[in-house]
Every structure is written in C-alpha cells, then in structure tokens.
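A protein record pairs a chain with a discrete description of its three-dimensional fold. The following entry can be read in just this way:
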Amino acid sequence: MEKIDLFKLHKADYIQAKEPKLVEVSTGHYLTIDGIGAPGSTTFDDAVMALYAMAYTIKMTRKKHGKGDYVICKLEARYWSPTEECLSKIDKSQWQWQLMIRTPDVVEEADLIQAAKALATKGKTLSVNQVKMNEFEFSNCVQMLHVGAYEDEHHTIKKMLDFANEQGLTPKSEHCEVYISDPRRVPADRLKTILRMPVN
C-alpha cells in the first residue's frame, strides 16, 4: 500500500510563492488543539507537543494494524484576536490560536480516543485530551513564503496587505501560518514559513 503524503497531494494548497498570490485552499481533515497565549509560551509549546504526540501515535497504531501509512504533515496555525482587532495591536498573551496537523480522512474518532488513552497510560501531557478532529476550509487566501525570523514577518504581511488591496479583497481578522522549517534545527534567518491571509 502506497504511503500517503498529503503535503504533496495538495501541493496547490502549499504554494511557496516569493510574491503574494491568491490561492483557494481546499477543505482539509485536521487534528487540532486550541489555546490562548503567546507563541513560544509554555502553554503553546505544550499544545504543540500534545498535537504531535497524538499525530504520531495514531499514525503508528494504524500502521501496526495494517491500516496504511502516511507522512505526518507540517504544523499549521491560525491566530486571531478575541476582539477582532489587528493582532499587532494586542499583547501576544491574549492571542487565540488553533494548532493544526492535516491528516488523511481515513483517520477516525476511534483512533483519536485510542491514542489519547495510550498516551495517558504513559504519563504524557494531559493536553492530549484536548486534541480534536475537525474539517476546516480556509477557502480564498493571499499566500506568500516568508524567509527569516518570525519577528520579521510584518514585512511580508505588508506586501500581502498591499496585494489584497490592489485586488479589491478584504482581509479577515485572522492570521495563518504553515511551518516548513523546524526552528530547533534551522537558524532564524533561514526559517521558511508559508503565511496565509484569508480574504473576502
């Protein structure tokens, strides 16, 4: 049985454009976990670990039982303000977010429950019980690849906003990212992150 790679199968959704581009992102099946706080905070990092723990446990359990194999997708994140203000205008500790890992739609709720129980018996973070399964549609987005530190994303976002205005598009009060690089292994100035700006 062929190993599924959703990142390649849906490559049109993950275009790494060097200039802003309008992309219609298809509906996806995701493992998700929600939270509030600054990226890189203890709460955020715990949620990342819980999401990956669930993703890999589900994958390996399904593979062990002959239910096929697949590549774990890149980490994605949606960020928004509770007051619908621009994120740059509020303290990061107030940011709301949803971390996401795209998953084959053959993964079922039963897989999620089994994985959470298995991790709980191993004494893993209780946050695994907060991981859910959701269908999500980004729909129309202005998308662009950002190369460099996360703190410098505002330069790329400015280009995306200018592009949206030129196209007569209205940005929604949400900022989305797809993490191509692992910040533990790649220097900040070489990090690659797909930035998404959902628009109307």
Observations:
- DSSP finds four helices and eight strands in the chain.
- The chain has a mean pLDDT of 94.
